[in-house]
Description:
Blueprint: H1 2-21, E1 24-32, E2 40-46, E3 49-55, E4 66-72, E5 75-80, H2 86-112
Antiparallel strand pairs: 1-2, 1-4, 2-3, 4-5
Helix pairs in contact: 1-2
Amino acid sequence: MIGWVILALGHDLLFQSALLMSSTKATAQVTKIGMEHNTCIYQFSASQQAYDGVGYECGRYEQGTEIKIYYLAQFPKISSNLYPGTGLILNFAVSAAAVLVCLIVGFIKRRQD
């Protein structure tokens, strides 16, 4: 089970780490709202090309609202509306909670045997 947690969060941890080390700040426009988990779709321009990204905690905005985002200049498909590093903290907290639950379940199963 711990392996599945690491696999599920691994790519996001990698992206957030890269954004923390080297990101470019830009303005994006919210293009779609009303999605699951208070997310939205935003669009921004980099190197004269338009890119879409998924934003977190932005479901309260209206379509067309401008938001700040951070992206990798070398690979603009990697972007986030969260301040670089924020996603790392959240993912580590989720990972730690998942590992703790696995340990508790394993401990309870051992005691039952």
